[in-house]
């Protein structure tokens, strides 16, 4: 694999065309990925701003910065923006969109125009949601539980519900595109057992998007109808059942957690073998475990409702199934660890994020088992223990994976190298800031501090101050990559086609890739992760 | 797969040049057709989940409030509903015939069958809105002057035994309470009835829109025996919407039609 000198004139997807129209009407999956990157980054900062308000309010026991109502709106905004407008589209719509066609040797996704439409749908939903925020906001929590959302809340529930309903179609169309692309667009020789694990994981994610999202869509439609027309479907005083809403809501929203974490696992499965210079341990198990997580993930939803009055017997079954989903997740963690064992591990930026992911996801996953245990759940439900648990999975897991992936493929996406020293520093700051923010919340929750309150007894203050301090460090950790990645666009040194000496078709094309990804359709003759036959990257060789 | 014959990009360019319908990122027409068809099947899968949420709600409340659901179901016009079912099945037949005509390269028959499909589709929507209009007059539309316990849309008459009214006839307090319950529980039936048939009608309207385009394309002679993918996948969608109605009809109209007493 000879490294070609990157000439300035070489045509790629970025300099192929110029002008705003060439971006807004593009059907190139790589350009659409960049459109998504810009828009989800904007939403990440909106959601982050809400998080800032929450943490500042909780700095003191008294409700001094925000009123109770404003606080309710702040955490609702934080949850809805982060879940529906950042985490769910994050890795799939940016990295997945960019990489899946290249990884399987295709020229584009199966339906390029639908891909563009899905971005527009996302933008329309986003604008509607922002409009809802600036004209008053919502205070139902991201979960929209009736009967509060349908009868008692005086905020813009209908508008927020419609915005999220619309954004769901964006996610459905992205998932549809991925599934069909993986089935129908693979290059000659790219068999299922040679697919990169990144693709396997996204395939599993897409299936959840396809089968789960329509259910929350219809659930939100029913909430909107109930609220607009005063129907009574979810109102117990009129024969309706609020728990039915919770079943329908969590039928999507629990698997949605796997929509967030599986793509992150996809990224980690690429980074770990590359920076360990070893074939991934147990390829088949890692691949199948993605599918298993997607499948079992669909039958665990009622563990969110152990105290909502469901029958004891169904609670026992759901508790058992929730334990079961830990098995394929553990398979992944063990296999990544085994991949590193006796490998030539280098501590590059993406690998630091991968280490962070594995540790934090393991904590997040194991505390999930506490919550799946019926007795413990009664004690800690709706406390900060739950908040800490799912932030370890969604932020410690999903966002770490996203950042790791952004660094790993940044040379491919932008054609520029980021400054390695700053990269490592940021990864370290994120890890420290994250733990300082969320570990105290486990203790707070165990001590009984409930979620969604804007005041608390003074004895919880020390831990809350620690958490807020951690959040500021975390914010620095998130801002740093923003700065130096943008800096690298202008000043970074040009990236080689394969700077990490990684396997995978995306590294055989130029950086950045040409519009149709490859000059000639590649033919695959090897399985993935053949690192035994790959030379070490120069940098690593020098370090030894 | 690794020993599959290699198609050079030069050959591909020839095929791309000959077949204007072949989009640049597909290797051949066959791959393009397979992708489109698989995409539509998965999309229909998402549609099943979408309607599935409402079917789930329906099943639970039907079990809880069977007498109210059965009585309200009896108020739906069986003749009109059955007639509409026949209309919709006919439209599926004409869609299948249109696809067949495209495969045979018979453009005239194709356009004729597609026009018939549009007629049947619009007829279905017309009949449905006539039915909804009647429901409005009977005060059976939730929140629009909803009333099922007296007046024109009185559901209790004829269903006294099923609804358990005969048991509380002599106790005015219990009678009033039971009537209030009937008012609320039938409202859940009608909410789901309008949500389900309304969602179905929205899908029909989208279908008619799609088929207007398809008919135009057929008229322009875009479909050949080798290439008629848009017609085929639009047909899949139409059949799906048809099948949804095939489930809706018995679930809503035929809950319990046995004569009472």
Structure commentary:
The complex is a heterodimer of chains A (544) and B (261). Chain A is mostly helical and 544 residues long. Chain A has one domain (27-543): Cytochrome c oxidase-like, subunit I domain (Cytochrome C Oxidase, Chain A, Up-down Bundle). Helices cover 67% and strands 0% of the residues of chain A. Chain A is built from 17 helices and no strands. In chain A, helix 8 (242-276) packs antiparallel against helix 9. The longest helix of chain A is centred in the first third of the chain and has 36 residues, at 68-103. The two termini of chain A are 23 Å apart. In chain B, helix 5 (107-137) runs antiparallel to helix 7 (172-219) and helix 7 packs antiparallel against helix 8 (229-253). Chain B has one domain (66-253): Four Helix Bundle (Hemerythrin (Met), subunit A), CATH 1.20.120. Chain B is elongated and about 85 Å long. Chain B is mainly alpha-helical and 261 residues long. Chain B contains 8 helices and no strands. The model of chain B is unreliable at 1-8 (pLDDT under 50). Chain B has helices spanning 9-18, 29-64, 66-74, 78-104, 107-137, 165-168, 172-219, 229-253. The N and C termini of chain B lie far apart (69 Å). Classes of the chains: A mainly alpha (544), B mainly alpha (261). The interface between A and B is large, with 52 and 44 residues.
Structural topology:
The complex is a heterodimer of chains A (544) and B (261).
Chain A: H1 20-24, H2 29-57, H3 68-103, H4 112-134, H5 148-152, H6 157-184, H7 197-229, H8 242-276, H9 283-297, H10 312-324, H11 326-340, H12 349-372, H13 374-380, H14 384-414, H15 420-447, H16 461-491, H17 538-543
Helix pairs in contact in A: 2-3, 2-4, 2-16, 3-6, 3-7, 3-8, 3-14, 4-6, 6-7, 7-8, 7-9, 8-9, 8-11, 8-12, 8-14, 9-11, 11-12, 12-14, 12-15, 14-15, 15-16
Chain B: H1 9-18, H2 29-64, H3 66-74, H4 78-104, H5 107-137, H6 165-168, H7 172-219, H8 229-253
